[in-house]
Design goal:
The complex is a heterodimer of chains A (about 300) and B (about 450). With about 300 residues, chain A is of the alpha/beta class. Chain A is about 35% helix and about 25% strand. Chain B is globular. The N and C termini of chain B lie far apart (about 65 Å). Classes of the chains: A alpha/beta (about 300), B mainly alpha (about 450). The interface of A and B includes residues 83, 88, 102 and 104 of A. The complex binds adenosine-5'-triphosphate and magnesium ion. The site of adenosine-5'-triphosphate has 12 residues of chain A, from strand 2 and helix 1.
Chain lengths: ~300, ~450
């Protein structure tokens, strides 16, 4: 199902949270929704989920307007808020049972849905525990299981990975990847760009309520490509002592000490990058990690946003 | 106890209201209900035991009154527990998942409401035997008093629903806290009424007062129910239609009722008329695409729906503020001295009747100011209603003042002032004014915004 957001505007008093926001997520693809704090991500996602009305503009799922008919849109939208599932005095299975009932499931069908959602999110051993006793990561799993009960074809996730430890994040990513493989359209807002990197097909970048870039990752990257290519080399010991060797291997290129253990190498083109790396590795320098700061999602994000918090 | 809870837990059939099931499970898992149940049983036994020990001469109403007082507060405990839970849940944005399901507003509302009522009913039945035993005579007035308490309870529950169930985020502390404080104070007020009622053997005046208050509170509870319902509907739909129609029907019912029992129809009419028309006039009246699409084809029905159609909740707020101010004024003013603060029981009741005419007049004038405001707001929707209202009120109160200075109840100034209704012929004026207000709303609803702007304000830039 395709998501189209058109000219969405929302004001809170004199504060313009969203200013004519327009973007599109093609059917079946996974998009990241990134931007600095206070950019308006949560506001936009809440409007898309039909929880709040915009001042103007529409959200279209295929041809259905979620602004005019939020209750119809809810049938195929799964929305995970940025707050945790945290009701008092309720067990996990009771909580999920409620949402299954609320989606109109009953009897065998309900049980099947509960089991399926539980398997997708590894909830088996949590079901008897009270929701408010769970850790953040577990609550996040419960939230995810909840929105999967009615098998939505569109998923809107607001910071699903916030506050999770690396292992929980890896598990969440696995769950999300298997969901994406099912052909659902997903919009994931997140601050942890490395998380999104290998999950998303494209990004929507928002800043101060305005869209600054939107589209497939490669497309955005090409659009802003200057030809220059940066490589960040991490060494196991003091990087400065290797600077001379690297410079000798790549004559004429700029080599800077980025941090005590990192060197930044600036090359002119992609071809140069590959040949330079081959030389460095052949020379047997103790490089423990290699990254391209200008290339990934982070590079795009840094270039497209100015880092001002609204 | 635990096993019992677990058996209950598993045995909810699939067809039941999901919200009710969830809320009830939460109540069973929590400690409030069990705690207050055990507490009430112990207190009941203690009171009955003491009552039997004391000699028949020493038994007095004071003793039963104390039990009543405790009983009343115990009834409220589980409800208070539920509301504090919802309040916290709303603050943490935990209610939103419920709003993103396909549950209808009625399902959500009924589920929450019945979960509260059921737990209160359990406690009510628990304390009832002791109550009957201690109060002995189950006469008409005791029943009435209980009705009053119950009506008050219902109205409060509905009002709290209204405060706790809105899906908007980050508006928790500002809107709800003053409301909750006010409600807490009101609870104490009614509690002390109980005590006063039992300690005053003659029970003069209290009877009529109880009927009036009962009817008003019951109808307020019904209205609140529909307001809650409207808040859960999307803004784009014609969401205020139901609350307003229910308001009108209640209005008519109350007038009809006033013929049967000792009810002051004027007071009721004025309260309801004012609140409903005020709400109608403060709200956003532009039709959305959806609300236009959902209008009925029949031109007559169409007019009715248009009259009652979409808007925000601001009007409710102002309506309640004005009403509360008026009623407070009525309650706390002594008739003989006309001064604020003298709160003898009989004096207060008499004062109600005395002050009622000017109050009606005041309300009706407000309605008219509100209509004027509506016209102005249609002209420029950005103008703030409260500021406009104050300006208009100030402007229109000029004639009253002039007429006072001119020293008479005659002449052109008098005709335009609220005083003319207060001291003039009311039986015709009140219905006529209400009809006129309704007509105004209809006219305004049917004229397009574009037309208003063109006629009144041919400005550039907009
Ligand atoms: N209910 C509200 N009342 C007033 N202002 C609000 C409300 N909700 C959001 N805002 C404002 O709207 C802007 C966007 O907020 P939003 O929560 O959408 O940002 P965000 O991109 O989700 O930020 P974060 O990354 O920190 O979660 C902010 O300036 C915020 O202060
Ligand atoms: Mg956010």
């Amino acid at each position: 199902m395709r998501i189209r957001v058109e000219d969405l505007t929302k004001r809170f008093g004199s504060n313009v949270a969203l200013d004519k926001v327009t973007f599109e997520v093609p059917s079946g693809s996974v998009y990241g929704f990134v931007g600095p704090n206070g950019a308006g991500k949560t506001t936009a996602i809440r409007i898309m989920a039909g929880l709040e009305g915009p001042d103007s503009g529409t959200v279209l799922y295929d041809d259905l307007s979620a602004v005019e008919y939020p209750e119809k849109a809810r049938r195929f939208v799964g929305f995970m808020p940025d707050t945790l599932a945290d009701s008092k005095d309720i067990r996990v299975w009771e909580y999920l049972d409620f949402f299954a009932r609320a989606c109109g499931l009953a009897g065998k069908e309900k049980e099947k849905a509960l089991i399926r959602a539980g398997e997708l999110t590894n909830l088996d051993n949590l079901s008897g525990r009270f929701l408010c006793e769970l850790s953040k990561g577990m609550k996040q799993q419960v939230s995810l299981a909840r929105i999967l009960l009615h098998e939505p074809s569109v998923l809107l996730l607001d910071e699903p990975a916030a506050g999770l430890d690396p292992r929980a994040r890896a598990e969440l990513r696995e769950s999300l990847r298997s969901l994406a493989a099912d052909g659902r359209t997903m919009l994931i807002s997140s601050h942890i760009l490395a998380e999104l990197e290998d999950l998303v097909d494209g990004v929507v970048i928002i800043e101060k309520g305005k869209i600054s870039a939107c589209g497939e990752l490669s497309e955005i990257r090409n659009r802003s490509a200057s030809g220059e290519c940066r490589a960040l080399l991490t060494f196991s010991s003091d990087a400065a002592s290797f600077a001379g060797k690297v410079e000798a291997l790549c004559p004429g290129k700029s080599v800077k000490v980025h941090s005590p253990r990192q060197l930044l190498l600036i090359l002119d083109s992609e071809e140069e990058y590959f040949s330079a790396m081959a030389k460095i590795f052949q020379a047997g320098l103790p490089v423990t990690a290699l990254s391209r700061p200008d290339c990934g999602l982070e590079g795009v994000f840094m270039e497209k946003t100015k880092g001002e918090v609204q | 106890m635990k096993n019992f809870a677990e058996i209950l837990n598993k045995s909810f059939p699939d067809g039941m209201n999901p919200v009710l099931v969830k809320e009830f499970r939460q109540t069973l898992n929590g400690r409030t209900l069990a705690g207050s149940f055990i507490g009430l049983v112990l207190i009941s036994i203690l009171f009955c035991f003491l009552d039997l020990q004391i000699s028949p001469v020493g038994r007095g109403t004071g003793f039963s009154a104390l039990y009543c007082f405790i009983y009343w507060f115990m009834l409220i405990l589980p409800a208070a527990g539920c509301f504090s839970r919802w309040y916290v849940e709303r603050g943490q944005d935990c209610l939103t998942p419920e709003y993103t399901t396909t549950l209808s507003p009625f399902t959500i509302l009924n589920g929450k409401l019945f979960s509260v009522l059921i737990s209160s009913l359990i406690l009510f039945l628990t304390g009832l035997p002791a109550f009957l035993f201690l109060c002995g005579r189950w006469d008409y007035s005791v029943l009435l008093l209980f009705l009053l308490a119950f009506a008050f309870f219902l109205a409060t529950v509905m009002l709290l629903c209204l405060l706790c169930l809105s899906p908007e985020r980050r508006k928790v502390s500002t809107g709800s806290l003053p409301g909750l404080t006010l409600l807490g104070l009101l609870f104490w007020f009614v509690g002390f009424q109980f005590l006063g009622f039992f300690c005053n053997p003659a029970r003069e005046g209290a009877f009529d007062m109880a009927i009036q208050a009962d009817v008003l509170l019951f109808s307020f509870a019904v209205q609140c129910y529909f307001w809650c319902y409207a808040r859960l509907l999307p803004e784009q739909a014609n969401r205020m239609v139901l609350p307003r129609i229910s308001g009108l029907i209640l209005c008519l019912l109350l007038v009809a009722l006033s013929g049967v029992c000792r009810l002051d129809s004027g007071l009721v009419l004025c309260c309801y008329g004012t609140v409903n028309v005020l709400i109608a006039s403060f709200e956003r009246l532009e039709q959305t695409k959806r609300s236009c699409a959902e209008l009925p084809g029949n031109p007559f029905l169409r007019q009715i729906v248009l009259f009652f159609s979409s808007g925000a909740c601001r009007g409710l707020f102002y309506g309640i503020v004005f009403l509360a101010a008026g009623i407070l004024l009525l309650f706390f003013t002594d008739a003989s001295t006309g001064k604020w603060g003298d709160i003898s029981w009989n004096g207060r009741f008499a004062a109600c009747l005395d002050w009622y005419n000017p109050y009606v007049a005041f309300c009706l004038y407000l309605v008219f100011y509100a209509e004027l405001l509506l016209v102005l707001r249609r002209w420029n929707p950005r103008w703030k209603p409260l500021v406009l209202l104050l300006i208009i009120c100030g402007f229109l109160s000029l004639p009253s003042m002039l007429c006072l200075f001119a020293g008479g109840g005659e002449g052109i100034f008098f005709l335009f002032s609220p005083l003319s209704i207060a001291f003039g012929e009311k039986s015709l004026a009140i219905p006529a004014l209400l009809c006129a207000a309704v007509l105004l709303v209809i006219v305004i609803q049917n004229v397009s915004v574009a037309f208003f702007r063109k006629v009144f304000a041919p400005r550039k830039g907009e």
